[in-house]
Structures are given as structure tokens and as C-alpha cells.
Amino acid sequence: MIGQRIKEIRNNNNLTQEELADGIISRTYLSLIEKGSVHPSTNVLIKLSERLDCSVNDFMQEVSHFRYNDVEILREIAYYEQKIEQEDYTSLHYFIEKEYEAVEQIPAPDSGRIHLLYAKYFKHSGDRRKLNFHVDRALELLSTVSINQSYIDAVILKVGLLADEDAYESSLDLLEDTLYTILRFSDLDLGVIRIMFEVAECYQKCGEYFTSSRFAARIKKQSKMLHIDYRRDALLLLEGKNLAMLKKFHALDVWTSESQDAMSRLLNCYAKYKNGNIKAAEEKYKDIDFDLEALGQDRVLYDIHKELEERLGFI
After folding, report:
1. Can you state the angle between helices 27-35 and 2-12, rounded to 10 degrees?
2. What is the pLDDT of residues 151-205, one digit of tens each?
3. Distance between CA atoms of 38 and 5, rounded to whole angstroms?
4. Are 27 and 17 in contact (CB under 8 A)?
5. Which end of the chain is more exposed for a tag (fewer CB within 10 A), N or C?
6. Model confidence at 267, in pLDDT bands (50, 70, 90)?
7. Residue 145: left if φ>0, alpha if ψ -120 to 50, beta else—which one?
8. Which residues have a Cβ under 8 Å from the Cβ of 142 and sit 6 or more positions away?
9. Using an 8 Å Cβ cutoff, are 57 and 45 in contact?
């Protein structure tokens, strides 16, 4: 009971475990106290009470069934969503420590946003098991309301996990169901483009280059209507790979002729080689600074690079 009460007062004071424990005990020991695994000494209780600006007797009271301040929670969710948008993950563990996902009073959509924050954090930290758990919970909770950008973020995260397992059919089922729902019930124009891009990429990964190319064309049309340039370089590379696999080498040469990106230049070199312009292909190939790790993660580009290595004679 004491541990639960300490945790309650700590949360009310908006302190992390690190902040409360600093200079008194270790964070790990405080965590054990709050879980009820160990019983702290009177000396520790006094020091904790001083930092929490309360009395030791306050720790002996029953844990109140208080409701977390919804406004404060929403403010924190929005704050950490912005942090992740800026690719700043350093302080997110403070948010995770508060265990808001266990608070029953939080509405499902907001709880879904919390699980989505966790999922993005664990994706960044490389914990695939926790990523999988939290993205599934996010999808479940966010699906209780109309599709929004948070749900689309969760879908894209889940598709990435499925693609890593070569589960392209499941990826496409999820993406196409989401796209159908958006087109039927929602006005999320940017959301349509984001999902269509994932669909195009997924079709490409499973070798359906013509279908991928059709979705890429739809993305360009939709982007033009909305006066936006969604993921221009990524879309250029996606369509370049489709053209290469569909053996449209003249179109590929034109499509990639202006790009300075190494991967697009590789595709341009490939187009020149396939069009019989061997000398131009050799000259361009010499000047490309390849990221071999990135090439190894892309089947199409890896195979193209391997062919050019063999044919053009460069080691």
C-alpha cells in the first residue's frame, strides 16, 4: 500500500522515478518500492516525503481512486507526439513510466494514441516484441472512431512489421481495407496519399510492379490536385524501380536523368546500359558513391547493382 501511495503522490507532483529517487535511492529500488516488492526504511520514507512535500503519514493513507486530469494527459500526449515528429526520443521514457495505458478512465482513442507513442518509441529502440504489442493495441483502440492520422500512423507501423516477415498479403489486406474506409467515410486527403504510397511500395516488394506503378500514378494525380509534393524523392525512386522491372528503359532514362540521389543515378546508369549506351553507363557508374548497406536492404536495387558490377567490370 505504501508503494502505491508513493507512486500516486509522485504522479500528482509530476515527477519521474529518476527525479524522486535522485540522491536518495536508486531508481530501480524506488520502482521495487512502488510495486510493493520491498519495504523502505523510515529514513528513506522521510527523505521521500520531504522531496514530495508531504508527511510520512500521507504514505499510510489509502490510495485514492483519483481520475487523472484529462487535460493534462492530452497535453502530454500532444507534447510527446511533437517530440517524435521531431525525431526526439530522449525524454519519452518519462512518459512511458507514468503508465497512462493502465488508467481505465482514458477514452479509447486517447489510449490508442498513448500506445502509438509507445510503439514508435520501441521501434526506435529496436524492441520488436514491445513494438508489435503496442501497435496492435493502438490499432484496436484507434479503430473505435473515424480514421485519423494516428490510425494511419499505426497502420504504416504494422505494415512495416508484416513486410519484414514477407507477409505481403496481410499487409495489402490491411492497407486496402484502410484505403477503402478512408475513400468511403473520410475526407483525409493526405491520409489517402500516405496509404496509397504504402500500397504501391508493398506491391513492389512482392513483385507486382505494374500494380505498384498504377498506384504511383494515382499518388501523383492526387498530389497534384492537392497542390502538394508528397515524398517526392521516395516516389521518384519507387517509380524508377517499377520502370526498371517492367523493362521500360527509355522511360527510366528520362525519369531518373535529373536526380542526384545515388540510388536514382544507379537506375539511370542501368537504363543507359540496357539501352546500349555502355560508355555513358560506365562513366556514370564510376561516379556513384554507393551505400552498400542500403543496397542490401532493397532487392531490386541490389540485383541491379550486382548485374552492373558483373557487366561493367568494376569491383
Report:
1. 120
2. 999 999 999 999 889 898 899 999 988 988 888 776 667 888 999 999 999 999 9
3. 14
4. yes
5. C
6. very high
7. beta
8. 108, 109, 112, 113, 116, 148, 150, 151, 154
9. no
